[in-house]
Amino acid sequence: MFALGHLGIGSWLAARRVPADRIGWLLLGTLLPDLIDKPLYYALSFATGRHGAALGLISSTRTFGHTLLLALALYALLPRRIGGPLLAGIATHLFLDEVSDLAGFIVPTAAPRPKGPSVLTAILFPLLGWRFPVLPFSTLLEHAEGAVETPWLFACELLGAALLYWQWRAGVFSWLWERFRKRGVPERSG
Question: What does pTM read for this prediction?
Fold first, then answer.
């Protein structure tokens, strides 16, 4: 799943459990696993010219950022007002990734299917071993094309966009508008 799916569906699933002034941390949590793992994998792949299992431990875009270990560490180390919403956002991200993978196993043409160890090995890392799944993408462009060409991912992006719009209209993100309104526009000098 990509940004709109994680932001829209993830915030819809968890926003009721998070105070309005902390929704920003929830939204960050819905994207954090990908903000960590996608740059890590693609930078390493670009630097070495290798991809997938040939890279070793960092074998896909679902590695350390997609672990419960990271989510629980952030929750334990950060103040609860930040750690709680981040944990909720990360949990929705992991849940939605797992649902997407299950869709790929049930209907192989619906979503990309991981090769090698299950995606659950990333979530439960290192309890199920010291390796991560290998996803079928060699480049960032190939990964992005998957969102358009894969019915499941495309549908999740559309649903995420619709849910973001609905939540915005319902005032769930009013904290964002208030923050910008209070800041005001700086005066021009001269």
Answer: 0.85
